[in-house]
Amino acid sequence: MSTEEAPEKNSEKVINSKSRRPSPVLDGKAFDVGSMWIYETLDATLTIKVVDKYIEKNKDVYVYDFYYGGEKVAEEHRLCTKEYLAKLKSVQGESKETIFKEPLILYKFPLRVGKKWTNRFEIQGVNYISEVEVLSYEKLKTKSGIYFAYKIRHKTYPQGLEKEAIIDTDWYNPEIGLIAYSKEGGENPKAIFKYYVKTVELK
Question: pTM of this prediction?
């Protein structure tokens, strides 16, 4: 995927372009239990559901289930505050569980073009660095409509091995959630097809 293209499915491109609107600064919102997103990928649908919520250290943690086709493939526990949306725990399949000692920040609020932050975390004894930058605010067209979203790049690599970095790019709207996603040379791209969200104002 080039910097001028977003994920595609069966040759139908999701088009994005730089918006002529002034780039906004937007606060984050939590997505309550019952929220759901369905994405098209190259060979199946990806469905993400917020299925549970609990309190940890006086903060709200939301449980997200991920289904590829009809099979559950992952679970994430996400902490949402006025300052950020972050992963606390990730479970891949039935046995591969990662607990983050510090919250792994996915989105830092308020979002604005040019914002940067860095995550440091450990998986199976290996220390990683993830450098995140909000690159632009863009218009995307998918089968479900036209959206405005922040284009956010995540550059992740083992500490000391930046040349082995993996680049993930996603397009995120704080009112809707993830709109589209792409990984350089790897995982299936995805673009939103259907969604239903219940947002929670953060205090």
Answer: 0.84
Longest pairwise C-alpha distance within the chain = 47
Say how far apart CA 27 and CA 164 lie, in whole Å.
33
Per domain, the residue ranges of the chain are 5-198
Coil, strand, or helix at residue 83? coil
Question: Quick one: residue 41, left, alpha or beta (phi over 0 = left, psi -120 to 50 = alpha)?
Answer: beta
Q: Please, is 89 exposed, middle or buried when counting C-beta atoms within 10 Å of its C-beta (0-12, 13-18, 19+)?
A: middle
Cα–Cα distance between 28 and 185 in angstroms, integer? Answer: 30
Nearest one of 49, 28, 19, 7 to 192, comparing CA atoms = 7
CATH of domain 5-198: 2.40.360
Give 161-164's long-range contacts (Cβ < 8 A, gap of 24+): 162/129
Can you give the pLDDT of all 203 residues of the chain as single tens digits?
333 334 333 333 444 445 455 678 888 999 999 999 999 988 889 999 999 999 998 889 999 999 998 899 999 999 999 999 999 999 987 668 889 989 999 999 999 999 999 999 988 888 999 999 999 999 998 888 899 999 999 999 998 888 888 899 999 999 999 999 988 765 667 899 999 999 988 87
Residue 154 token pair: 């995540």
